[in-house]
Amino acid sequence: MHSNRSTTGHNLSIFQIFFMSLKNETRQAFQNTRNFYREYTKGMTAERIGKEFQDDSRRLMELYYDAVGLKPGEKEKKQPPVRVFKLLSSLLLRLTPARRLALGFSFVAFVIHFLWSGPVAALMLPLGILTLVLLLLLELLEKSDVMKEIDLARDIQISLLPGSNIKHRNLEFASFASTASEVGGDYVDVVNTDEGTYYVIADVSGKGLSASLYMVRLQALVHLIIEKLKPDPKELFLHLNDYIKSGKKDKTFVTACAAFFPADGSSVKMCRAGHNPPLLYQASRDAVSELRSSGVGLGMTSTGVFKEHLKQLSINMQPGDNLLFYTDGLTEARNPRMEQYDEHRLRDLFELYGSLHATTILSKIQIAVEEFIEGEKLVDDITFTCVHMHPEKSKILARKQSKDLQQLTSG
């Protein structure tokens, strides 16, 4: 009896294992369908769909204005058929010759199907639809390849930016950067030399890939000039303007701000080429001041005229002080009501938190801007840096030794 029960139990266990190894195909099919549905509808919120429709409509309107040769708000003079023809021509010329031929074949196939009868005409409809589907797939694959290249460009651009928190001697640089598109045209850099530390922030006109490529070029020029000449900020900008204006066909201009922090602790030198004025928090006064100096954007005029307008400031920065540099994308960030963050909000925030360390101030500004824009898409790249001056280690040690000596003397 005992052996029978054992055999039965053994058989049951084998049966259970075998039965449990079977898959419920209906459940598997349901799970696959649900997973597909989740992937397909991922991100399909009413708010996001509405914004994407607005963006697509804006791009179509830009294409239309470009095709018919109009500026936004300008009155249309050409007849509707002419405008439609120009729009179609502009769209078709964006395709490769082979794809234009395939698109033309699909249109002819549709015409044959609806105007004639017979087996050949009946075959034209599926052929025309198949051709359009293949064209769509090719365009999507091409867009996917382009996005991969843009992602690679973004990775390269990010690798060229300085770290988010850099400490050198008694200086701390905390930086934040966010692009309005996949790649951006804002430039920020920290260059250390034996003579001192250079800081540069710039905003290339335009957005996207062209601005980002110009930014890479600008960075290479900055490093080359600093390495060879060790200039002050004014001399740096004069040399940069020479390089930018050397290309006669180049219509790009750059607003920039540069500062040099000498290693010997002397006054900080700063120049502003048409850029947003930095904000200085002075711990001794517990107050914020705006550092305005004259200067036009790089590449906007000849170097001779540029030199006449460019002025260099000397800043007596003390331990505990904070210096805030930023691009106009920060103050021009908009919320859904089309209100800008503006300079007043930024200054009020800096006055409130100016006594804190650089990384804390950076975090406070980031949170404040994110709350203000309420998820709205950025209209321009946002870049800002807070520079904090710590007491020098040698001075701290000297004060500590002096305090210890006083204690020993009094004891």
Q: Mind explaining what this structure looks like?
A:
This protein is α+β, with helices and mostly antiparallel strands and 411 residues long. It folds into 2 domains: 60-154, no CATH class; 165-396, Phosphatase 2c, domain 1 (4-Layer Sandwich). 55% of the residues lie in helices and 17% in strands. It is built from 13 helices and 11 strands. The chain has helices spanning 2-21, 25-40, 46-68, 80-93, 97-115, 119-160, 208-229, 233-245, 303-309, 328-331, 342-353, 358-373, 393-410; strands spanning 165-168, 171-178, 186-192, 196-204, 254-262, 268-273, 279-282, 287-290, 312-315, 322-326, 382-389. The strands form 2 sheets. It has a 6-stranded antiparallel sheet. A hairpin with a 2-residue loop joins β1 and β2. α5 packs antiparallel against α6 and α11 (342-353) packs antiparallel against α12 (358-373). The longest helix has 42 residues, at 119-160. The relative contact order is 0.08. Residues 5-10 have low confidence and may be disordered.
CATH domain class of the largest domain: Alpha Beta
Spatial extent as radius of gyration? 32 Å
CATH homology-level superfamily of the largest domain = PPM-type phosphatase domain
Q: Which stretches of 5+ consecutive residues score pLDDT under 50?
A: 5-10
Q: How do the strands line up in the largest sheet? A: 1-2-11-10-7-8
CATH architecture title of the largest domain? 4-Layer Sandwich
Q: What is the CA–CA distance across the termini?
A: 97 Å
* Helical content band: 40-55%
Give the amount of beta strand, in percent: 15-25%
Counting H and I runs of at least 4 residues, what is the number of helices? 13
CATH topology type of the largest domain = Phosphatase 2c, domain 1
Order of helices and strands: HHHHHHEEEEHHEEEEHEEHHHEH
Overall number of domains: 2
Please report the total strand number as a whole number: 11
Report on the biggest sheet: 6 strands, antiparallel
